[in-house]
Each structure stands twice: as structure tokens, then as C-alpha cells.
Fold this protein.
Amino acid sequence: MRKLSFTIVLIILIYNVVALTAFAQDNQKLAQTGMKFLSVSLDPRATGMGDATTAVFTKSSAMLYNPAVMAELEGYSDFSFGTTRWIADINYIYGSAAFNLFDGQYGVFGVSLVAVDYGEFIGTVVAPNGDGFLEVGNFKPTSFALGIGYANQLSEKFSVGGNVKYTRQSMGTAVIGFTMLMEMVR
């Protein structure tokens, strides 16, 4: 039995090595991922805990991490606002509000907003000149997410919740074709 297991593991290992070398390609990065601003931790407490906040928040800021926990909200309402300064002077502005209508009889409703100010950048394109690039003007990328959420406590130990977000990210305008740009410069 031990020989059979060792043989199967060895065959799988050899197959993986052969498959990786046979199908390896020279992948060139051609694009970037979008909506990365949604993965940045905004709350200082959550950041300090390494984003291990699944059941910790009971206030409106739970909408940013786990909306089901918002069902344990005490009182009529809760508001949370803040800013986070990130690398390269990128500023995150966030806010959330939760409303415990009719003492939680119908659940807890909430809204959240996350907006990002990246600042202003100088746009460039690759050009066959002495500098290797050509400036195409300034642009100011923006990102925001607007969410609405709902949570309900079904029992003392079980809550459900969710939120729906509308997100938008604008990274400026794209330059279409280098020859067209060169014609515009002349």
C-alpha cells in the first residue's frame, strides 16, 4: 500500500513538472486589475487585528466587513465616518450609517460610502523620442462604492445579512493609437 501511494505521488509530481514546462508561456503583463480600492482595510481597529473582524463589529462599520453582525446593533442608529491616508498620498474617505427600526423587529438597515482621492497624475505614453515618453496631460482618477445593507438576527446565535454595492472607478482617458497622438502634437 505504501509503495502504491508513493508511486501515485511520484507520477503526479512528474506530470506537474512536465505540464509546467511544456505549456509554459512568456506571459507579459498587459493590464492592471480594477477595483483594488475595495480590498483596503479602512477601520483602524480592523487593521490592527489583521482584518480578522468577522464577528467583532456590532456597529454600522460592520457593513464594510460583515453586514450580518450589524443585526446586534443596540439603540436606534449608529454612524461611523473616517479617513485613511494611504501610500503616495492616496486618501480614503468612508462612512456608514445603520438604523434599527422598530427595535429590530424588521432587522437593521444600513448605508455605506467609500470614496478614494488618488490625487492628480501626469499622463504619459511610450514614444520613440529622446525621453522615451510623451506627456499627454494631467488626469485625476477616482473611485467610489455606495452600498445599502440589511441584517436580521434570527436567533441569539445566528444572524444573516448582506449588502449590495454600486462601484465606479475612473482611471482617466485612454490614448488610442500613438500615430494619432503624434499627429495631434505636430
About this structure: Residues 2-22 form the longest helix (21 residues). Strands lie at 77-85, 91-100, 108-117, 121-126, 133-139, 142-155, 158-170. The radius of gyration is 25 Å.
